[in-house]
Design brief:
Rossmann fold; binds adenosine-5'-diphosphate; 2 domains; alpha+beta; binds magnesium ion; five-stranded antiparallel β-sheet
Length: about 375
Amino acid sequence: MGSIKLHTISKKFGQRQVLHDINMEIQDGEFVVVVGPSGCGKSTLLRIVAGLESPSSGDLEFDGRAATHMPAHARNIGMVFQNYALYPHMTVFDNLAFGMTARKSSRQEIQQRISEVADLLEIGSLLKSKPGALSGGQRQRVAVGRALVRNPYMFLMDEPLSNLDALLRERMRVELRRLHDRVRIPTLYVTHDQTEAMTMADRIVVMRDGRILQVGTPDEVYSRPNSVFVAQFLGSPPMNLVRVERRSEASLVLEGSEGTAFPAPDGIRRATDSAWWMGFRPERIIRSHGGASGLAMTASIRAIETLGSRYHVHANWGRFPITWVTPEAPGLMPGSQVALTVSWNHVHWFHRDTEQRVPEDAALDFPVEAGGIR
Ligand code: ADP
Ligand code: MG
């Protein structure tokens, strides 16, 4: 085992550039999740690391050694795909043994390794079955087992849970992560599903249009997204974003509003632009009980969704739709007004034109604002 480094990897298919200067590292023992919308280049990136595709420029390094031109079969990679591609006519045992048989390992060696892997994945009782007789989750485990049998240098996983139903996907997320914690094989996992990224990753790499937007732990990217895109891509329901404009050097109002102004953070006071995005997460909104410090809003409720453990309250603040997630909703109904607050340290600011984050500074302790904007 060891690390994997990508240095300024780019890829063109004909005239079309699908990867732009990708720099990243998967450290020994690390679980890195690349997350981004469909078509952003995740599978292409994975295939380049696997050696199934070669980069147009840039370099790969495995454990400090140049690997860009290493043939795929020499890379010792365990791959798991969305469609598990198990051989339907072979038993689970033979599916697991396939690679070792091809490499002419001894019968005893094969038995030994398969029994270890089967124990690890709790598939010992399935070894004589054919894939057709297994459930989705069991097939998934066999596919992981097949990649694990060869004791790979690293795991590459391409949306391995996308074919499973929601409940199973939740269980397999935990199982895969638990497996990783035991075997510690460096893993590059790609998905379009932000929940998988948040729950499974040591570090998340957010990609869009062939470029890396942000790298960090799940907490870092969630609490300090560096752009509007990242802010809205991670988290469900997504971050609320409203347009604000400058009223004076030190104060802002909702765009087009005559309502109460609120103070601008330092980064905005010093800038010359007049228009900004203000963001706050649905779960960071609390109901005002008078005197709560922070951004104060009066919102009119449009609809309330009940999810059992919580409510999604859809409302309008001025002319901007916002969502509020709350564990309880006594007395709330469509058409009514509700006073809400978000603590200033949970408010995010972005430049309107570049959509980049306004850097924080010490001056986010605002005075208490009452009233808010109608
Ligand atoms: P993702 O896995 O994030 O959905 P892909 O890496 O599969 O994205 O694809 C990224 C882009 O590259 C897509 O626009 C896709 O159509 C294009 N692409 C992928 N493979 C090829 C190929 N072999 N030839 C031409 N274009 C390709
Ligand atoms: Mg893909």
